[in-house]
Amino acid sequence: MISDVFLEKIKEYQINNEIEQENILLELIQQFILVSLAKANFFVDAQFHGGTCLKIIHNYKRFSEDLDFVLKNKKPDFILDTYLEQVRNDFLAEGIHIEVIDKSVSGKALKKAFLKTNSLGKMLMVDLPFTRDQRKKLKVKLEVDTNPPTGSTYETAYLNFPTIMPITVQTLESCFSGKSHALLCRNYIKGRDWYDFIWYVNKKIRLNYTLLESALFQEGPFKGKKLKVTISWLKKEMEKKIKSIDWNKTKEDVYRFLPLDEQKTLELWNVDFFLYYLKKFIDECRLEKKRTNKAKLDEQTIITKRGNVLSCNGIKS
Fold it and tell me: pLDDT value at position 132?
């Protein structure tokens, strides 16, 4: 039974409280949905990205509510409900009733759906480490951008629960570029964005500049401006943003998505803390640029030397 599979998986987690338990149940539902979407060939067109992608694919500490996707190419006639039917049927086959509500609006690029169930909670209630209201529904929001900015790169990753299944995910370089666009352009401040920023910086993930420039041109305060994103431009804009934020208020939306032992790091949040990580990020960008320039120079030197050797031997290159 699927309930046994879920319970076995839950045992792998060190659950400290009811909030963590709810986050873990939600994550297991998310993985079940991803497998169903893969079976419906959803990833022929789509890439998985966002916070839940980091959590499930890259063992990120922060839990996330939503399943976010971008299409590999623009597809205005994309119909989400085609794939949701597979999800609904797969849950029903396991005795789990799930309410699927397609909130997509014709003509809108962002397709949305909400998936809700309280069946799993009822099935697992007796065996969960913390008491749970069986009437409470687990809710997942699913979003697909059908008009993505150009330049995204992707790769194959494998889910291991509830079964091994290949899916298409955005590369970390492209994910970081999307997150950088959100940091600079989102019309409200989201603490989770900045928590993610620290993770990307510590992992020394490079930016996909092509994607970032395309995203800036397409949406936000820089819309329609053909920017050439430079390291100095990034430093200036990010510094401006960091200094404008109320960090005590911003960290509040992050607590419930973190394990207890990680929550204490939020007490460090202030302007100086994020300026430190910005400097670390900018320094790494500069190092990467030097490495890239050196590699290009070395390649050109090799080509020149090869041409000289051929010329000395009377051979035309």
Answer: 83
Compute the mean pLDDT over every residue in the chain, rounded to the nearest whole number: 91
pTM given for the model? 0.89
Residue 298 has pLDDT above 70, yes or no: no
CA distance 148 to 72: 8
Separation of alpha carbons 42 and 274, rounded Å: 38
Name the token pair of 120. Answer: 């799993």
Q: What is the mean pLDDT of residues 104-123?
A: 85
| CATH number of the domain encompassing residue 98 | 3.10.450.620
Alpha-carbon distances of 275 from 43, 96, 128, 229, 252, rounded to whole Å:
38, 47, 42, 19, 20
Tell me which residue range forms the domain holding 23: 1-170
Are 210 and 277 part of one and the same domain? yes
Tally of domains in the chain: 2
How far is residue 178's CA from residue 175's CA, in Å, rounded to a whole number? Answer: 5
Same-domain status, 46 and 191:
no
Q: Is 241 exposed, middle or buried (0-12, 13-18, 19+ CB in 10 A)?
A: middle
